[in-house]
């Protein structure tokens, strides 16, 4: 698969694509240790952790990043400037980079929006529901991955707690060398 395939399709779902082994106590510890570095929507208990290298808590994510980049004929580079500093741009050969783990502890409804780049989301715990372009509704279960073009609007919600990781594709023309 390549980025153009995602752009042309709008979205692609890969059911049961990659198993990330973790549990809720580990996720709660990740939140606790990153509480100073998280974006929250307090009343809804939606948390985006600003940690692009959460491998100390969830080691399997590194394998997922490596596999995903390999599937797109690129190489995941943990030392990329993008991973080290939120203000810096990508300077590595990899395409896919973690934007951050996302936790929702309620049935929070993330309103319709478009991402700034082509995105991938891996569902790790719980289920999430995605409505794409006001038409198709998907249910993501643990190990499912969805790829979404930045031209597709989507809204997301869950029924109960859920945890996943958002990744962005950084295209070659947006890299700094």
Q: What's the quick description here?
A:
It is built from four helices and eleven strands.
Indicate the topology.
Elements: H1 3-9, E1 11-14, H2 24-33, E2 38-41, E3 46-49, H3 60-71, H4 81-84, E4 96-104, E5 110-113, E6 119-125, E7 128-132, E8 136-140, E9 145-148, E10 154-158, E11 162-169
Antiparallel strand pairs: 1-9, 2-3, 3-4, 4-11, 5-10, 6-9, 6-11, 7-8, 7-10
Using brief descriptors, characterize the structure shown.
single chain; 177 residues; alpha+beta; Jelly Rolls; 7-stranded antiparallel sheet; 4-stranded antiparallel sheet; 11 strands
Return the CATH topology: Jelly Rolls
CATH superfamily: q2cbj1_9rhob like domain
The low-pLDDT segments are: none
CATH architecture: Sandwich
What is the string of SSEs from the N terminus onward? HEHEEHHEEEEEEEE
Average predicted local confidence, pLDDT: 88
Can you characterise this structure?
The protein is α+β, with helices and mostly antiparallel strands and 177 residues long. The protein contains 4 helices and 11 strands. The longest helix has 12 residues, at 60-71. The two termini are 25 Å apart.
């Amino acid at each position: 698969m390549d980025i153009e395939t995602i752009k042309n399709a709008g979205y692609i779902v890969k059911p049961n694509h990659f198993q990330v082994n973790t549990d809720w106590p580990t996720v709660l510890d990740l939140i606790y240790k990153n509480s100073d570095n998280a974006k929250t929507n307090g009343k809804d208990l939606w948390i985006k952790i600003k940690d692009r290298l959460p491998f100390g808590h969830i080691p399997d994510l590194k394998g997922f990043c490596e596999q995903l980049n390999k599937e797109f004929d690129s190489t995941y580079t943990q030392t990329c400037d993008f991973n080290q500093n939120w203000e810096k741009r990508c300077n590595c050969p990899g395409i896919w980079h973690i934007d951050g783990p996302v936790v929702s502890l309620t049935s929070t409804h993330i309103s319709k929006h478009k991402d700034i780049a082509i995105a991938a989301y891996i569902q790790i715990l719980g289920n999430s529901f995605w409505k794409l372009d006001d038409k198709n509704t998907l249910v993501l279960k643990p190990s499912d991955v969805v790829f979404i073009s930045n031209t597709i609007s989507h809204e997301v919600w869950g029924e109960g707690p859920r945890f996943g990781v958002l990744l962005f594709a950084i295209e070659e023309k947006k890299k700094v060398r």
